[in-house]
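[job 4471] stage=fold_predict status=RUNNING
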Amino acid sequence: MNLNKKFIENAPDGLYSDSSCPGLYLRVRREGKSRSWIFKRQVANLRKEVALGSAFKLPVAKARTMADRLRSVSDSEFLKEPLHKRWVICYN
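[job 4471] inference complete, writing structure tokens
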């Protein structure tokens, strides 16, 4: 599903993938009071999730850019811990 502003604002609780950006998900919780962007990637049978931020504050276009940059990181770099200290790449 291609996530647009109207859907993002009104989606019921659940996890929704963005068809135009592989690995990007909108997670809606607590009856819509919590909306977060999540990036998921699997490397060597290990699944990792990276929280990108609140969908209330982070526009879908920026979330897609961040997901694109995380997808371009090499497998070995992506698996290093802690990723959150190195994800400055998403904001540059």
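[job 4471] summary: Residues 44 and 75 are 9 Å apart (CA to CA).
[job 4471] exit 0
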